[in-house]
Amino acid sequence: MAHLKKNTRGAVPGLAVHFERKTDHHTNKEIDVSKSYLNQDLMADGSDMLSRFNERLNDVYCMKRDDVKALATWIVTLPEELTEAPYEQQRAFFEATTNFLNDRYSQENAVAAVVHYDETTPHLHYAFVPVVFDVKKSRYKVSAKEVLTRHDLQTFHEDLDQNLKKVLPFYEQGILNNKTLPFENVAEIKKYNDQFNALKTELADIEDNIRAKQAVLKITDQALTEVDLAEKQIDAFKQDLSKNLFGKTVLKPDDLNRFKSVLATMKKATLQSQHETEELKQTLGQVKAQLADIQADYQNLKETHQSLQKRQREQQQLDYAMRDMLKNDYGVDKIAHTDAEARYVLYKLDHEELTQNKKVAQTWLKTLTTARANPDTKIAPTRLDRGIEQVKALINRIIKLTYDLFKGPSL
């Protein structure tokens, strides 16, 4: 639904070109220039994004480092429920979203609010300079870290959703639909997905190392063969020297021994390389086994997530059906909060889902009596009276059971 990005000062000119469509030669192949006339600039004040950005930076303190995130951009996509809505409703959605962003990050920090209709899905590009007040130095400064905190990002979608529901009467389903609801299993999937990717990276590194070791091993195996051959040749050469008719040796025995020592060292290094390769193979096997476990857990969580999505969609469809039935068949546009709570209690009583907690039972009694006293209640008085008597009887049973429990067996 919404995506945030932090940008350096050097990225702003390029973003301005894209946001304000200052060129017809786009690298994004999804842009249909024949529809660009439909785009909206919600900050049409005779200026442009780059000018507003530079003007705002002149008013506040900003470090001169190239890596400072001096601009933040939100991309807010039109919800699916409004893709077929009239243009006026879509425009109202983006204007309300812009007002929400102006209130959240201060309108004086905004430098762009552009709606693109010339791509696959209509969306809003909102850009602002993240500014906070520096109490120690008594001045305003640019600080994306202090503006876009973890709390701000965690509450953003929920806050935007609630705000839009208040100001837009046609906005019912909301951005927190079955695609964005924060199920716990989604977090679990992300956790396992992160582990899965980390292990894949580790596995790739180990496989690269294995391949490198195998290449070395191939070379050292060849060298080992050559060493063995050289040793045999040297032994044969020594024997030939000892049989020299003139009794002279061209190569001293000490030199031969030193040469053999060097060859032995080479052979030892080769064997060590073979040993390391075997160890790496074992490690690779262990990582592969771990990866298989993570893949299995990931698949299970993914299936659970899909099941929850399906259940949520079915529940949502049922909710819409109930709302439609109440509105069109019974003329009920809304249900009072007291009636909703009372109907919940009556449902529990009708299906014998009784509590054993006295405080809960007393809360039920208060809920039913409050609804009974409401002259605008839609629940039949006789049904409420019957429910009140049932709860009173339930409370009496709980009191008696507690009394008998503490009284204990008679002597």
Automatic annotation (TrEMBL):
Q: Which residues form a coiled coil?
A: 189-240, 277-318
Family affiliation: Belongs to the plasmid mobilization pre family.
The UniProt record lists the keyword Transport: no
Q: Where are the transmembrane segments?
A: none
A Pfam family cross-referenced in the UniProt record is: Mob_Pre
Q: What is this protein called?
A: Mobilization protein
Keyword list (alphabetical) reads: Coiled coil
